[in-house]
Design a protein that fits this description.
alpha/beta; Metallo-beta-lactamase, Chain A; 7-stranded mixed β-sheet; 36% helix
Length: 332
């Protein structure tokens, strides 16, 4: 049985990589690479023709290939309202983003919370998701995804290129494959539109994606609507946060931070909090959970920074409304 499962997984991975190679996003990245190669070759030719030496090629190489070639979406032309709902799924994550034209779900809670998520989508009249982001394949983030996939039409899945040897993961991937849903394995700096909003991928870097560190493989985004913004990075931990700080710096600043890893001290590092500099922080966790989330040191840092904290274990589901200029909250 295990041998069959392994072969099925290998076949699936080959198909996913083939599909990704044909995706518009991958074509965009290939074009960017070709552009940098062309820039280097033209510059190198100019140096050679003017009598320059080989050592003058090194700065050109660094400029062409080592300097980050990405931009962070800073604002959009918001024409309507965006709702960001942090659904109470106990010890897990589920965030629903609704614009007037398109919808997105980020994570789906644990297996026993799948019906809660599906029922909420049905109550909102949501029958189609433009994006389903599965930040990483731990059960408390993808467990309810099978309910979503059976309930609504999903146009595209965004997830890290990493597997988890669990029945939960296999069930979700079987449904994605059976429904022939395109899967993106995003790269840092990739940008997507969502109605009159948009988002930029903040993490993970390729070297962070590993079956040995699923948390570190988490997909994180900065969501922008008008001038309002939200940073949400799954269970990305301190190492990934430092890479984001290095890559984006002050551009990480946002109005709302969904605290990483349910408020764990392995995430939410001081330098990351300083760069995001949110007005509000949301922590999704279960009441009296066995992990002690959120950790007291994280709460202390948030308090010291005068950040308003909303916790799903205390409040239940909370929703932020953006009109493109201001953010308003609906609390239970």
């Amino acid at each position: 049985m295990e041998e069959h499962s392994s072969k099925q997984r290998n076949k699936r991975n080959q198909k996913r990589k083939h599909d990704q190679n044909r995706s518009p996003e991958n074509e965009k990245r290939q074009f960017g690479t070709q552009k940098r190669i062309r820039h280097f070759l033209i510059g190198a030719l100019a140096i050679i023709l003017t009598g320059g030496g080989v050592y003058e090629l090194f700065p050109l190489f660094a400029e062409s290939f080592l300097t980050p070639q990405m931009e962070l979406l800073e604002f959009t032309e918001a024409s309507g309202e965006m709702r960001v709902t942090f659904l109470d799924v106990a010890q897990g994550d589920c965030t629903i983003v609704q614009t007037e034209e398109q919808n997105m779900v980020i994570d789906a809670g644990n297996n026993h919370q799948g019906e809660t998520v599906a029922d909420w989508l049905e109550a909102q009249g949501i029958t189609r998701l433009d994006y389903l982001i599965l930040t990483h394949p731990d059960a408390d983030h993808i467990g309810g995804a099978d309910n979503i996939l059976r309930t609504v039409d999903v146009e595209r899945v965004i997830m890290p290129d990493v597997a988890n040897d669990t029945v939960t993961y296999e069930e979700v991937m079987d449904l994605i494959e059976a429904q022939e849903i395109p899967v993106d394995f995003p790269e840092v700096g990739d940008r997507y539109l969502l109605g009159d909003a948009g988002f930029t991928v903040l993490c993970p870097r390729p070297e962070e994606v590993s079956e040995e560190d699923l948390n570190g493989s988490s997909v994180g985004i900065k969501l922008v609507h008008g001038v309002n913004s939200f940073v949400m990075c799954g269970d990305a931990e301190a190492g990934s946060e430092q890479n984001m700080v290095h890559t984006f710096g002050d551009a990480l600043e946002s109005d709302v931070l969904k605290c990483g890893h349910h408020g764990s001290s392995t995430s939410n590092s001081a330098s990351f909090l300083q760069k995001v500099n949110p007005t509000w922080a949301v922590i999704s966790c279960g009441r009296d959970n066995s992990y002690g989330h959120p950790h007291v040191e994280v709460l202390a840092e948030l308090q010291d920074a005068d950040i308003q904290v909303y916790r799903t274990d205390e409040l239940g589901t909370v929703t932020a409304y953006s009109d493109g200029q201001e953010i308003f909250w609906e609390l239970p």
